[in-house]
Amino acid sequence: MNVAETQGVYITPSEVIEYLYCPRFIYFMNCLEISQHEDQRYKVLKGREVHEERKRNNPDYVRKKLGCASREMDVYLASDRYHLKGKVDEVLYLSDGTLAPLDYKYTEYKEGVYRTHRYQSILYALLIQDTYQREVKRGYVCYIRSNSLIKEIPYTEKDFQSAQAAIEEILRITQRGYFPKRTPHRVRCVDCCYRNICVQ
């Protein structure tokens, strides 16, 4: 895509997560402007509420757990380079001189970090690298419903390339308005909020 088409256009990590679930989410949300009423989703709202409570009652508990030097909370970042914007729960300053995102999830940890949580962390890492011009080698996810279990996510160059490719594809769908192929996982269509208007 040329620069003029994407100048001043930003994608959020939530949009990338929706794209990964099914590329057609982007078409319905961004091209047809049909909302999926995210504000009604219980876990999203509950997660935000718990995060706010943690900040009020024990602001240093994760910092102590990870041994980081300092942190910034609720950091809004935007990158022209990656056409990406979002609010990182915490930016951690680690003792090795690198930075890391920390994201809180109001969910249980079940034998591995979900692909969506991993992608979100990678996207935050891109934002942090571009904004602070510091290396980001890993991120953390705090699973609140598993006694605030913290899992580390190491990044590879392939992770960053894959995340950038997803952003590029979302920009193409949004800017050119083409109808992408649906997810190959048909089971996802059963509970999809767009199932009544989507061509199967």
From TrEMBL:
One GO MF term: metal ion binding
Domain DUF83: 14-199
Top-level taxon of origin: Bacteria
Required cofactor names: iron-sulfur cluster; [4Fe-4S] cluster; Mg(2+); Mn(2+)
Biological-process GO terms, alphabetical: defense response to virus
InterPro entries tied to this protein: Cas4_exonuclease, CRISPR-assoc_prot_Cas4, Dna2/Cas4_DUF83, PDDEXK-like_dom_sf
Enzyme class of the recorded protein, top EC level: hydrolase
Keywords tagged on the record: Antiviral defense, Exonuclease, Hydrolase, Iron, Iron-sulfur, Manganese, Metal-binding, Nuclease
Comment on bound cofactor: Mg(2+) or Mn(2+) required for ssDNA cleavage activity.
Coiled-coil boundaries: none
Pfam families tied to this protein: Cas_Cas4
EC number(s) given by UniProt: 3.1.12.1
PANTHER family, per database record: CRISPR-ASSOCIATED EXONUCLEASE CAS4, DNA REPLICATION ATP-DEPENDENT HELICASE_NUCLEASE DNA2
Similarity comment: Belongs to the CRISPR-associated exonuclease Cas4 family.
Role noted for this protein: CRISPR (clustered regularly interspaced short palindromic repeat) is an adaptive immune system that provides protection against mobile genetic elements (viruses, transposable elements and conjugative plasmids). CRISPR clusters contain sequences complementary to antecedent mobile elements and target invading nucleic acids. CRISPR clusters are transcribed and processed into CRISPR RNA (crRNA).
Name by which UniProt lists this protein: CRISPR-associated exonuclease Cas4
Species the sequence originates in: Candidatus Manganitrophus noduliformans
Gene that specifies this protein: cas4
